[in-house]
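Course exercise 7: structure representation. Students receive a sequence record and must write out the corresponding structure in token form. The form below is the worked example handed out in class, using General stress protein 17M-like domain-containing protein (198 residues). Read each field label carefully; the graders check that inputs and outputs are placed in the correct fields and that the protein name is recorded exactly as given.

STUDENT ID: A-19
EXERCISE PROTEIN: General stress protein 17M-like domain-containing protein
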Amino acid sequence: MQTVTGLYDNHRDARQVVEQLEDAGVSSSDITIAGRDGDSGETYAGEGAAAGAGIGAVVGGTGGLLAGLGMLAIPGVGPVVAAGWLAATAAGAAAGAVAGGAAGGLIGGLTSSGVDEDDAHVYAEGVRRGSTLVSARVSDDQADIARSIINNNTPVDLDTRRSMYREEGWERFDESSPAFTEEELARERDRVRKYHPL
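STUDENT ANSWER:
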């Protein structure tokens, strides 16, 4: 098994990646999507889907993994729309089922599946700042097609994003950092567009 991961500044691109991965034969149970979803105009906060409620309500989406999108809260990130194996790990951590907290669940889940720890911190910080993460656990036979799908849908260049964060003194994701407000997310998205236009 390999883990192929991408970060997207446009939530619609991330949703398209999920659909393409499923169409290519990757099981929904082996795909994760997690993000703040502020750029699409869609809302998944259904009745009873409060921050910290975990992945409970079945909301949004057209089928497959996207039909199971729900809300959960990750310390340092805030409420995210999420579904999949990695989101379930983070939800379990938020509920106290996994030692180390939800950030440890998100970062730990990525690193335990083969993602470089430094990259995992950039992915977590990216979600904190409004980007959407897609990660797929795939067989060696599926790895090339999954990598192609992820790379052909305008993912964030991780090295460029890491440099952008480090220019302001960032080193690693810190779950004790306050979650971005909607105004801060909007400013961050504008800054990202100026730094690296789509």
